[in-house]
Amino acid sequence: MMRSRAAFIRWAVFGAALACAPQLCAQEPPGPIHPPSSTAPQKPPSNLPESPTPQPQTQQRPLRVRVTEITAPVTVRDRNGELVLNLEQKDFHIFDNEAEQKIDHFDLGGDPLAIALLVETSSRVESLLPAVKQSGIVFTQTVMGPTAEAAVLSYDGTVDIRENFSSDSDAIEGAVQKLPLGTSSARLYDGIGKAVALLSNQPPRERRILLVVGEAIDSGSETKLGAALRGAELANVTIYTIGLSTTAAEFRNPPKQYTPASIGPPGTFPVPTPPGVPETPETEEMTQGNMDLLSLAIWIVQHASNAVKNHSLEVATEATGGRHISTMKDLSIQKAMDQIGGELHAQYTLGYRPAADSQSGFHEIRVTVDRPGLRIRTRPGYYLPPPM
Description:
This protein is α/β, with parallel strands linked by helices.
């Protein structure tokens, strides 16, 4: 009885399978059948042959687009140094490594500005800091204008953000007015690097400007100037600089009481006095004072030499298409601010998209205009690092 019942069950299951087979075949999708997402994938049996090694092209990484757009600020002046403001897009040609590029973006002073103001507050420029603070109103009125955003940073032994990006001119001017006097260190290169990083986070549609007010001297920075400028080039940051004069600052500092250098034990007179003049402390001081005139002359020569050798501010502007203005008088700081503001709002901007497979290394940028007799200033190029 049990054997006949088992046989009956087997025949029933077989018949049901035959009845459902056509329906299953009709519903089967072409191609491999994928298990439900909730089902864990099964491991193949160990006796099966291993999968073939993927072809080399399947292992290649997709090419990354490292630069999406390059913008070149272009200042055009005539033979008299006056700004030329009546050129059109068709008048310009831009070349990347001597290959002419299609100009995708063209503007004359209309793009919104994002400006980072980086000010030296070290004790070296203590006497010039009041003049820098007074230039805050010129910065907000002529450099920022009515539509720009700005941030204020200071540098001495540290680099500090005094006011983050804001279009509130009162807040920006207030941050400049409250700049504190710092230490004797001047971490200029760290300041440039931090300001460039801050500007890099601003929307790409904004023209990114870094305005540095300080000396062409760096002390204590961990950032290399070359690395900071590479970042500025890739982030389309244009650097303008107003050079403060160490010589002018030291001449404006309160005079220090002169104390002759001791070149012998106390109470002795190692430098002989002129014939007939008694050796007294007063005559000794006068004699050593005459000798200090030579040291002062050497000091002036050394400072002039430093001015020739230290070109960090000029290099920063040359590398990014900006402008350097050196100052000697307090009022010239405000005048320099005004000149830079006038140029920023009368500057052409050309934008293009380099090829996705652009080679690594330095890319030279060259701009020409279809009008003779004009002087053109723009950034010399940008450095494209190798892919990671």
